[in-house]
Design brief:
Layout lengths: L1 H12 L8 H7 L2 H6 L4 E6 L4 E11 L2 E5 L5 E5 L2 E6 L5 E4 L2 H9 L1 E11 L5 E19 L4 E13 L2 E9 L5 E9 L3 E9 L1
Pfam families: YjbF
Protein name: Group 4 capsule polysaccharide lipoprotein GfcB/YjbF
Keywords: Lipoprotein, Signal
């Protein structure tokens, strides 16, 4: 019961994308608080608005895990790669992460990615991206509970007149601990940090 109350307090104090300051939420994720939580926890920051949120998993469908904030914003990930969002406005409806997930353990590669997003008028825009993944090198990620060794990757994708660059911090076991992932032209990037796997 104590764990559920603490999760509720963290989520209530860190409600996503409704005006929560990212630095204040990050400061609330102390080692003592995180150690008391017995469920996976994800921290998300909208780089465009500097709004933050903590998310907990609410569903698992095969490799896709859906995370949710206290105010019902959802981010779905496949092994740490964002494949959909809900509740953010011009949401990422879907993203095919399969080629990227094959390129990460290989250390890089070139591939196509396909995404779909809302256009603001209840229509769907389908996009194809030519992407290249390259290894940047080793790094260490500091979580509230531990230091984790990761390999940094940079993914550059182009399509039409658009370009975006995603960053990933991946541990040897395949866990993506940190990332900066492009959601769309209106939402920009989300910085994601896995607080508790």
């Amino acid at each position: 019961m104590k764990c559920h109350a603490l999760i509720g307090l963290l989520l209530a104090g860190c409600a996503g994308h409704s005006g929560s300051d990212a630095a204040a939420i990050r400061d609330a994720l102390t080692p003592v608080r995180v150690a008391a939580i017995n469920v996976p926890l994800l921290f998300s920051v909208s780089t465009r608005a500097n709004l933050g949120a903590t998310l907990v998993p609410v569903a698992q469908n095969g490799p896709v895990r859906t995370w949710r904030t206290a105010d019902a914003v959802q981010i779905s990930t496949a092994e740490g790669i964002v494949v959909a969002t809900r509740g953010l406005g011009d949401d990422l409806m879907s993203a095919d992460a399969s080629a990227l997930l094959r390129a990460l353990p290989a250390g890089g590669g070139q591939y196509l990615r396909h995404t779909s997003r809302l256009d603001g008028n209840f229509g769907t825009i389908f996009e194809a991206w030519s992407c290249q993944l390259r290894t940047l090198g080793p790094d260490v990620v500091q979580t509230p509970l531990a230091q984790v060794s990761v390999i940094r990757f940079e993914e550059t994708c182009t399509g039409g007149d658009a370009i975006f660059v995603n960053l990933y911090g991946r541990a040897p076991d395949g866990t993506i601990w940190t990332s900066r992932q492009w959601i769309g032209p209106d939402l920009g990037y989300l910085d994601l940090a896995l607080i508790r796997p």
